[in-house]
Amino acid sequence: MERKWWHGKTAYQIYPKSFCDANGDGIGDLRGVISKLDYLQELGVEIVWLSPVYCSPLADQGYDISDYYSIDPRFGTMADMDELIAKGKERGISIVMDLVVNHCSDEHEWFRRACADPDGPYGQFFYIRDWHPGKKLPCNWRSYFGGPCWDLLPGHEDKIYFHAFHRKQPDLNWENPALRREVYKMINWWLDKGLGGFRIDAIINIKKLLPFCDFPADRDDGLCDIRTMLARAEGVNVFLQEMADSTFHLYDAFSVGEVFDEKTEDLPKIIGDNGYFSSMFDFAEKLVGADPRGWYHWRRPTAEEYKAAAFDAQKRSQGVGFLSNIIENHDEPRGVTHYLPEGERSDEAKTMLGGLNFMLRGLPFLYQGQEIGMENVTDWPIENYNDINTLDEYQVALRAGLTPEEALAAVARFSRDNARTPFQWDASPNAGFTTGTPWLPVNSNYTRLNLAEQRGRAGSVYEFYRQLIALRKNPRYAQTVVYGDTLPYRREQKNLMAYFRQADKRLLVAGNFQKEAQEMPLPGDVAAVLLNNLDTLTQRDGRLILQGWQFLVLEMA
Questions:
Q1: Is 242 considered catalytic here?
Q2: 3-class secondary structure for 67-114?
Q3: What's the first-to-final CA gap in the chain, in angstroms?
């Protein structure tokens, strides 16, 4: 594998609206991020991805961009952004922004011009079709946020436009070379400013199966999951190669794709040497338990399912390229709530889960609050939820016959708002996030679960993540931790996840995924204990006794 500047880094995602509010208006901002750069440096991260801070009406929390060249005043100014990039570089931190180019906002100038003249050049930037009431829609695909992917074009009764997400997020027509040139120009404008790269949102969606057509309905609304179409669409590779060659490759920029539904044979093209992206997120574990009928039918993965998904993803990518490994992000529930059994939220369980994910081959991506073990909210009424996806799934559950209480319980487990509650800095009012009224309520557990309580406390989740990051940087072990193969060990043993990281050294990573102790045969002599989330280490007759939720990294002789 060709060595790249970002391979040994640890990345960290910031959801700016909920990270740190510097001006007291209840919304996190760029000045707040700048004020926490020393904290991020102390933690050890060297790549920071910001969720969108562009101008936006926030129909989908900034993933509906109305101006790619401007910072939304809620978050600050372009001068703030320039300062963040510069001060990040002073601390060895590269700033990465979100790149949202499957769609824009219906308030973007391109869409306004398309509405004014659907047959003109900007009408070709979108998927606009003639239509009249009573006529069949061009396809029966269901948008990600519910309902058909088609809506009336503003100002017109005889034309409709396509949107895979919210109706305020019209899809861009990537079949149009003029649109693509505008996108590439914008990307390079940001890279010229010194940006380290981009996280690329929903990128596989840019290629539609054309002409539009119907598929069998999978719910009683007569629509089908849009992913049915994505599985059949061909040709996205042409767009991705052109984009990479026209932008990222010119700057040696870091790029990480939000890639679903990729074909296995395309993986080398996506993340291999000279691939479209530097890396792509591993969503295999997240998809376990998903159900097309809706969140009310989803379930949490078991330990065995989590292990199988992680190992299969490692096998698929080994020798190909780097995955970006996550247990949560802004679109997911909190990982410690999702993957750990109900009632098991101890520091030991949280560090076991975090350590198992972090030590896999690939780029570790932490999401804000993960480093202190932030959890799902448990006590909200439906009125507290802001996320449009959650509100839609609540209605889906009600239509399926669940009571309001049952529907709330179902969507609360998977709501994206779980990850969007303000960062819990300390036990002061509003968890130290703002002096005003937070835009989204703070999780009520903040008085006991916060950074100030964990900082400097031996055995805390925060201090454990600092140890993990330090091990990745340790020159004695970096070759193995960064580039070593992942070789599963004792895969058949229930509720044990163990694997070797093997290169110039041989490291054994093991986590007991249950509260009861269990034994594991030791495959040789232990030369050194590199990490242990407990104070004890018990060996007996060539066997290791793992206590409940114990996590270990051992250097084998």
A1: no
A2: EEEEECCCCCCHHHHHHHHHHHHHCCCEEEEEECCCECCCCCHHHHHH
A3: 27
Residue 124 CB partners (closer than 8 Å, separation 6+) = 173, 176, 178, 179
Q: What is the pLDDT of residue 495?
A: 98
The pLDDT value given to residue 263: 76
User: On the CB side of 129, how many CA atoms lie within 13 Å of its CA?
Assistant: 19
- For strand 141-142 and strand 224-225, is the pairing parallel, antiparallel, or unpaired? parallel
Domain with CATH 3.20.20.80 in the chain: 11-101+177-454
Compute the half-sphere exposure of residue 179: CA atoms within 13 Å on the CB side of its CA.
22
Residues of the chain with CATH 3.90.400.10: 109-162
Q: Which of 201, 282, 328, 344 is catalytic?
A: 201
Count of Cβ atoms closer than 10 Å to residue 81 Cβ: 24
Q: Which of 549, 81, 174, 142 is nearest to 345 (CA)?
A: 549
> What's the angle, vertex CA 487, arms to CA 485 and CA 488, rounded to 5?
150
Instruction: Check if 504 is active-site.
Output: no
Q: Are 495 and 512 in contact (CB under 8 A)?
A: yes
Class (C level, CATH) for 485-556: mainly beta
Contact 436, 25 (CB under 8 A): yes
Distance between CA 190 and CA 356 in Å, rounded? 35
**Parts of the chain belonging to CATH 2.60.40.1180:** 485-556
Q: Which of 21, 46, 258, 344 is an active site residue?
A: 258
- Is it the case that residue 258 has pLDDT exceeding 90? yes
CATH class (in words) of the domain with range 11-101+177-454: alpha beta
CATH class assigned to 109-162: alpha beta
Which of 440, 444, 509, 439 lies closest to 471, judged by CA?
509
How far from 427 is each of 42, 423, 451, CA to CA, in Å? Answer: 21, 11, 9
Backbone angles phi, psi at 115, to 5 degrees: -65, -40
The SS3 call for residue 48 is strand
3-class DSSP state of 28 = coil
Closest residue by Cα to residue 298 from 415, 196, 220, 197: 415
The H or E element containing residue 497 is: strand 496-502
Q: Which residue in the block uniquely carries the two structure tokens 């400013």?
A: 193
* DSSP letter (8 states) at residue 422: P
10-40 pLDDT, tens per residue?
A: 999 999 999 999 999 999 999 999 999 999 9
Per residue in 266-295, pLDDT tens?
Answer: 899 999 999 999 999 999 999 999 998 899
The verdict on whether omega for the bond into residue 211 sits within 30 degrees of 0, i.e. cis, is yes
Three-class secondary structure of residue 528 per DSSP: strand
SS3 507: strand
Residues 6+ apart with CB under 8 A from 542: 521, 522
